[in-house]
């Protein structure tokens, strides 16, 4: 891939009928993706597959590090059961520690975790996030990874922390869902939102959206990818992005078309 286009990975889940983790990884490499994302969870038999940290031996971690190391980057998605929120922040961050260890063992530079952050709660307990996030930042530094909070609100709060290894994973598709459109409108659109997040933006999840249906093929919905490409150029974005395609909605060919559509948007913006 050209040096002037950000590196694109694909989230392993299931690719068409391909369920086996190693076979999915081989497909990613053969398809020319720069990186890979996967879930720190065993998955559901017959539906999707990830890596369960507690079942991944030292030998298997060494093997996977070598295989994953053939790609430019790797992202680990924390299990859905872990969602950082003010009421359970201590236990939630503790639950992330095995994921950070897995990231260090496998050489994964990004750990994504869902979080519920709200700028409006600063006087009702949210200020208590700073110290736990500073601690998490230190743990991430030790693990040689970064923690990307997948959020749809609370961007100002994350920006205010000013942390080197804890930042935002912007799932651009989620911002176009009806539930989040007002937030996007208030920000002045996706380009202004990305510019506002600025250096706190450390990863991206990419997929398209049609109404309430998300994780569909890029180019078949309403997400403004040229605006996203322009915004990333505006802020000098130096990180990566992962496609998140629902295997029940997007064929393997659709994944490839999605990657090419994203790359084309970046090329067109870069060349004017």
Name the CATH architecture: Alpha-Beta Barrel
Quote the average pLDDT.
95
CATH homologous superfamily placement: Divalent-metal-dependent TIM barrel enzymes
Q: Tell me roughly what share of residues is in helical segments.
A: 25-40%
Word description of this protein:
The chain has 272 residues and is an alpha/beta fold. It has one domain (8-271): Alpha-Beta Barrel (TIM Barrel), CATH 3.20.20.150. The chain is built from 9 helices and 13 strands. The strands form 3 sheets. Strands 1-2-5-7-8-9-10-13 form an 8-stranded parallel barrel, surrounded by 5 helices. The chain has a two-stranded antiparallel sheet with strand order 3-4. Strands 11-12 form a two-stranded antiparallel sheet. Helix 4 links the parallel strand 7 and strand 8 (146-150). It is globular and about 50 Å long. The model is unreliable at 122-126 (pLDDT under 50).
């Amino acid at each position: 891939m050209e040096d002037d286009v950000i590196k694109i990975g694909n989230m392993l889940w299931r690719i068409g009928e391909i369920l086996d983790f190693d076979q999915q990884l081989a497909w990613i490499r053969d398809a020319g993706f720069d990186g890979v994302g996967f879930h720190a969870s065993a998955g559901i038999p017959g539906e999707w597959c990830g890596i369960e940290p507690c079942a991944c031996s030292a030998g298997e971690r060494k093997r996977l590090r070598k295989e994953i190391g053939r790609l430019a980057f790797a992202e680990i998605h924390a299990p859905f059961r872990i969602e950082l929120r003010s009421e359970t922040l201590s236990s939630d961050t503790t639950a992330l520690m095995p994921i950070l260890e897995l990231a260090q063992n496998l050489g994964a530079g990004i750990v994504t975790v869902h979080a519920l952050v709200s700028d409006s709660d600063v006087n009702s307990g949210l200020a208590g996030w700073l110290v736990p996030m500073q601690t998490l930042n230190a743990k991430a530094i030790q693990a040689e990874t970064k923690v990307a909070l997948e959020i749809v609100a609370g961007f100002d709060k994350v920006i205010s922390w000013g942390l080197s290894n804890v930042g935002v994973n912007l799932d651009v598709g989620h911002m176009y869902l009806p539930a989040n459109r007002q937030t996007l409108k208030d920000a002045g659109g996706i380009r202004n939102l990305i510019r506002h997040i600025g250096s706190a933006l450390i990863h991206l999840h990419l997929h398209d959206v049609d109404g309430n249906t998300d994780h569909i093929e890029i180019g078949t919905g309403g997400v403004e990818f040229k605006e996203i490409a322009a915004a990333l150029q505006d802020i000098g974005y130096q990180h990566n992005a992962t496609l998140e395609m629902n295997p029940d909605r997007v064929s393997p060919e659709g994944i490839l078309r999605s990657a090419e559509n994203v790359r084309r948007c970046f090329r067109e913006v870069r060349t004017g």
